[in-house]
Amino acid sequence: MNARPWHDFLLMPELNKHVELHMEEKKICSRCIMDSSIPDIVFDENGMCNYCKEYEKKAALLFSDSNQRREKRNELLARIKEEGKNKEYDCIIGLSGGVDSTYVAYLTKKFGLRPLAIHLDNGWNSELSVANIKQIVKLLDIDLYTHVMDWEEFKDLQLSFLKSSVTNIEIPTDHAISALLFKRAAEENIRHIISGNNFATEAIQPSIWGEYNKDLRLIEGIHKQFGTKKLKTFPKISLIDYFYYTVIRRIKQIPLLDYVDYNKKEAVKILQDELCWKNYGAKHYESIFTRFFQGYILMEKYNVDKRLGHLSSLIMSGQMTREDALEEMRLPAYPDDLLHEDREYFLKKLDLSEETFNAIMTTPIKSNKDYPSNAWIFKNFSFLIQTIKRFATT
Predict the structure, then answer these.
(1) Quick count: other Cβ atoms within 10 Å of Cβ 386?
(2) Among 5, 17, 218, 284, which one has the highest count of C-beta atoms within 10 angstroms of its own C-beta?
(3) Does residue 272 lie in a domain region?
(4) Is the pTM of this model over 0.90?
(5) Pairwise CA distance, residues 208 & 98, whole Å
């Protein structure tokens, strides 16, 4: 899909039309709202998609009821507290300021844990995000470690991914966060990393929408082709490192929100009432980069609207009706004034001209197959990777 001239985005009706055409032209699942814009989607005779069916299979593997969740959670909390005795902290949490990570911080304190919060400052935090994080750690009395990225180095890496035309240009940030969490856990001799990843709101996310964020070979391959600076300080985690941390050091990642009856609206209300937390308006929009990437770049160049997965997950978990989700999809993904502001900020911060950015937006889409990567390992040794993942979670 070609990039539109910038003046087109000053017309609000055009933005609405883009969403309306998407809704009208695509075949939509009869149960959730995943649609035929997703290349590997399959509909059965009743119009139900393969993602709904996969959701049901995965849901069956989770705890069957609230009592079982509570029992497993209590066992888990007891183990974390026991293994954390005589240590300053008994767990590590990542804190972005978004709903999921903030609610995890809230729950760890509620359940009597002693977390160390890790925040990655990659240069794209919104002012609201900074204010939220400051308020959260103060009211919850949580120690916070903030890792500030070397901006010139990280900018070079982000530009490399933007120029590469792979779908997931968030890989550098996601990879760095993972590396920081494991490294700090090992340094503190802490065996538990509690994450905000959760089944209730994130179960439906097509793998075709992005590459594996722990693929260090892909990161280095893309940067070698498009970058100009050495990655001297960028936090890295290789597959060997991942094996070492999870199997040798036995550091586990715990999706705590899967051990509670996680309802996003209820969580937001609790955070607003008790922590004075301010809403960003959409998932992961605490980052200006993520907001512009998901709200514009993904939709315009890659024809990917991540709201489909987010809202479909909420439908399947009973937190939203299909009708309400369809209505939300008819709203612009980006308020016009915010889009204009974010686009200007995005280009200025990355030192990109309009001409260069538009050229990037029209470059053919590529995947990890077009660059050096460990994709073949993930494909041919998927059982081993999944085994390590299960070993690394609990």
Answers:
(1) 11
(2) 218
(3) yes
(4) no
(5) 25
- Rounded distance, CA 201 to CA 309, Å? 9
Mean pLDDT, residues 241-265 = 94
**44 phi-psi bin (left φ>0, alpha ψ -120 to 50, beta other):** beta
194: tokens are 């509690």
Nearest Cα residue to 94 out of 200, 184, 181: 181
The residue type of 18 is: H
State whether residue 38 is helix, strand or coil: coil
Q: What backbone phi and psi angles, to 5 degrees, belong to 288?
A: -65, -35
Residue 312 covered by a domain? no
What's the one-letter identity of residue 174? D
Q: How far apart are CA 6 and CA 97, in angstroms?
A: 31
| Number of domains the chain contains | 1
Instruction: State which amino acid sits at residue 306.
Output: K
Band (pLDDT 50/70/90 cuts) for residue 2 is very low
Question: Tens digits of per-residue pLDDT, 299-343?
Answer: 999 999 999 999 999 999 999 999 999 999 999 888 888 999 999
- 277 is written with which tokens? 């937390």
Q: Taking every pair of C-alpha atoms in the chain, what is the biggest distance, in angstroms?
A: 61
Task: Retrieve residue 40's tokens.
Answer: 């590997």
Domain with 226 in it: 88-286+366-394
Domain-located, residue 111: yes
Task: State the pLDDT at residue 389.
Answer: 54
Say which range, 20-24, 107-111, 240-244, 322-326, has the weakest mean pLDDT: 20-24
The average pLDDT across 280-305 equals: 88
Alpha-helix residue ranges (DSSP H) falling in the chain: 12-25, 50-61, 66-83, 99-110, 127-140, 151-164, 171-187, 199-202, 216-226, 239-243, 264-275, 288-292, 298-302, 307-316, 322-329, 336-349, 354-361, 375-380, 382-392
In a domain, 261, yes or no: yes
CATH number of the domain residue 391 falls in = 3.40.50.620
State how far the Cα of 180 lies from the Cα of 176, in Å rounded to an integer. Answer: 6
Burial of 78 (0-12, 13-18, 19+ CB in 10 A): exposed
